[in-house]
Amino acid sequence: MENIAVAFGGRSVEHEVSIITGMQIMENMDKSKYNPIPVYVTKEGRFLSGESLKNIGTFKRKDFSNAKEVFFKGFANDKNLYTIESKKGGLFGSKSASMEVYEKIDVVFPALHGTNGEDGTFQGLLEMVNIPYAGCGVMSAAVGMDKVTMKEVFKSHNIPMTDYFYFYRNQWKKNPENILNTAEEMGYNFFVKPANLGSSIGISKARNREELVRAIDVAANYDSKIIIEKAVDNPREINVAVLGYEDELRISACEEPIGWKELLSYEDKYIQGSKSGKVGMKGQKKKLPAELDENMQKHIENLAIMSFNAIDAAGVARIDFLVDGEKVYVNEINTLPGSISFYLFEEKGLKFTQLITDLIEIAHKKYKNNLENITSYDSDLLKKTTYGVKIQ
Length: 392
What we know:
Blueprint: E1 2-9, H1 15-28, E2 34-41, E3 47-49, H2 56-61, E4 68-72, E5 80-89, E6 94-104, E7 107-110, H3 121-129, H4 138-145, H5 147-156, E8 164-168, H6 169-174, H7 176-186, E9 190-194, E10 204-206, H8 209-220, E11 225-230, E12 236-245, E13 248-251, E14 256-257, H9 266-275, E15 286-287, H10 294-310, E16 314-324, E17 327-335, H11 342-346, H12 352-370, H13 381-384
Parallel strand pairs: 1-2, 1-7
Antiparallel strand pairs: 2-3, 3-4, 4-5, 5-6, 8-11, 9-10, 9-11, 12-13, 12-16, 14-15, 16-17
């Protein structure tokens, strides 16, 4: 049986959403194959583990007294989680501390939403210590998180999008009039977003200058880079997910959220859905599968695969579209864990438990493939260089 470290929480405004995702993954993991090891990253950045962290009640009570602080050592190929054990001993009962192996980890399943997790940061740590992990690599996770870089990559692949431009918070502070004029050249209406955030946090719609100023001020509280996108009036939103790695890809069913007017807020996605016990996008009203003619569906599926490949994604990602008559625009891609999208695959007969298994197996495949890369090259460069010859 493999030990799967499920990392969730994190130093992010999406901390609570991440806890819910972590619970879902641990609860639905195939226990005949895998032993889920919770790794809760607190808002301060401490790593905690323990059986109590498999229970949502622990987080509601905020009682972590039964959890142990754990950590990865900075050694490549050391696939252990460690903890510090305190021991009493000696004539006067003095305490000593020793580093002990907490658990050997076979695969890490990142469920860290938002900054310091979904953005490639945590994946970088796992690359340094050389542990297999589910989902995108460092670069693809970072590109998928940064809406500006994502769109620049999509543009290079001729993937259709609405008009947009971006700027930095300092530019807004120094010359707001220039930013406003540049935006208004595109023509209202706009969506204003922090470049690096999910769950609809910090996103606003602007229909006039007053709303635009307010929307930029809100977004600037969450990120130093802000993007303004030209809105599509009364579009159909279509979402579809892609699962796989490199050339072995599967496409999910398409969904069409209904009942939303302009923007699904954080409360729409998580607070309202939680009342029915269906948290996240699964809890929203939708047509699943979406009513699409064959040509439109095939076009959307092809664009989804193009978007997945454009950022070199791995694991699973949901691609969101805006449909305006016969025109189709890619809105964004949501990588793991921002979109496990299990309900979209369930519509095609792939249960959540099997989806998690597939993601773990893809993690092994990706890891094995990376092991074929040369990471060390002996060139005797230091013996040949004259740099520092005066240093005794």
